[in-house]
Amino acid sequence: MTTVFIDERKTKYLDRPYGRVSRKKLKSKLLEGCISGGVRFHEAKVWEIQHEEFESSITCDDGTQLKANLIVDASGFSSPFIEYDKPRNHGYQIAHGILAEVDSHPYDLDKMVLMDWRDSHLGNEPYLRESSSRFPTFMYAMPFSSNLIFLEETSLVSRPMLSYSEVKRRMVARLRHLGIRVTRVLEEEKCLIPMGGPLLKIPQSLMAVGGTSGIVHPSTGYMVARTLGLAPALAAVIAECLGSARMIRGRPLHQRVWAGLWPVERRCTREFYAFGMETLLKLDLNGTRRFFDAFFNLNPYYWHGFLSSRLSLGELAMLSVSLFGHASNLSRLDILTKCPVPLVKMVGSLALETI
Ligand SMILES: Cc1cc2nc3c(=O)[nH]c(=O)nc-3n(C[C@H](O)[C@H](O)[C@H](O)COP(=O)(O)OP(=O)(O)OC[C@H]3O[C@@H](n4cnc5c(N)ncnc54)[C@H](O)[C@@H]3O)c2cc1C
């Protein structure tokens, strides 16, 4: 069960389980898969990548040169090797999180807190309230026991990016107000995820996977589960092209593999999710609360599908109509007054994708 605190008076309970991924175990599992598949490793930093018509080569910082028919870049959001043909204007998710031992906390032990939008903790902190009303943050909390909890103050999306120190100050104020006294910080994490913005150049000679491939959900920042879900199909396209029977190389290869990751329908749905992000960027704290109040009133098929990037373009259109139907009058006013520009941009991008 998952909880969303819309404000001091309204709480939603969602029938949606959450889990915490062990980075170590996930990495071990992926490495074991590579080893059993005969992957050979070379540990070094990639310095330069050069492309010729049918072959690419990598120069590493240890001087090693490696050649391949296809290079797949999995080096994360700030890869210098991936090309863009449109100006990049990402939004950013920024968060400060701690896995901490605490004296006590007020959250239910059997529920994950997806979003706590309450802001009564700012009653005594007027210097934080003004910026929090315009650029809201929420608490994401996963209690493991009455004394062990993961807490993360999160700015869902901002542009320009909300400062990290501001996020930390808000978290301190919130914990003080909730009476949570941290006795030991076991893990601390700084989260910075670029989201949305135009998709990279498709196709290009370098293939991408993960954070560098544009696959991060533009409205939530989620990416890991989606990449794991898409990886087998992408690997199958690469294997089919490079397999001895087909011998597809060069531009036809790049076109096939990029179409495997970003078919037209998926590019169109990404435009829609990016529209969701642009809408969130325009909402203040009260607008955001009204938005999520309506969003989590939708048929769970729609909000589950939206959060996990599973909806088709037609279903996303249905979601929008239904969201408008569920929205309060003030929320409808937000949508009508704040969304036209992002909406026009989305329609323009959809037209470009489908021409
Ligand atoms: C605190 C935090 C919480 C998050 N929570 C979630 C969540 O709940 N759900 C979710 O889906 N996502 C979450 N994310 C986002 C998720 O972690 C990222 O989207 C994901 O890690 C990106 O994976 P990646 O493999 O593409 O890149 P990375 O994890 O950044 O890995 C890239 C790797 O490439 C290496 N590398 C970089 N440059 C080079 C080079 N030149 N040569 C060789 N190697 C290089 C790096 O050292 C690194 O090992 C979170 C992120 C953070 C920081």
Automatic annotation (TrEMBL):
<dbReference type="Pfam" id="PF05834">
    <property type="entry name" value="Lycopene_cycl"/>
</dbReference>
<dbReference type="InterPro" id="IPR010108">
    <property type="entry name" value="Lycopene_cyclase_b/e"/>
</dbReference>
<protein>
    <recommendedName>
        <fullName>Capsanthin/capsorubin synthase, chromoplastic-like</fullName>
    </recommendedName>
</protein>
<dbReference type="GO" id="GO:0016860">
    <property type="term" value="F:intramolecular oxidoreductase activity"/>
</dbReference>
<comment type="pathway">
    <text>Carotenoid biosynthesis.</text>
</comment>
<comment type="similarity">
    <text>Belongs to the lycopene cyclase family.</text>
</comment>
<dbReference type="GO" id="GO:0016705">
    <property type="term" value="F:oxidoreductase activity, acting on paired donors, with incorporation or reduction of molecular oxygen"/>
</dbReference>
<dbReference type="GO" id="GO:0016117">
    <property type="term" value="P:carotenoid biosynthetic process"/>
</dbReference>
<keyword id="KW-0413">Isomerase</keyword>
<dbReference type="InterPro" id="IPR036188">
    <property type="entry name" value="FAD/NAD-bd_sf"/>
</dbReference>
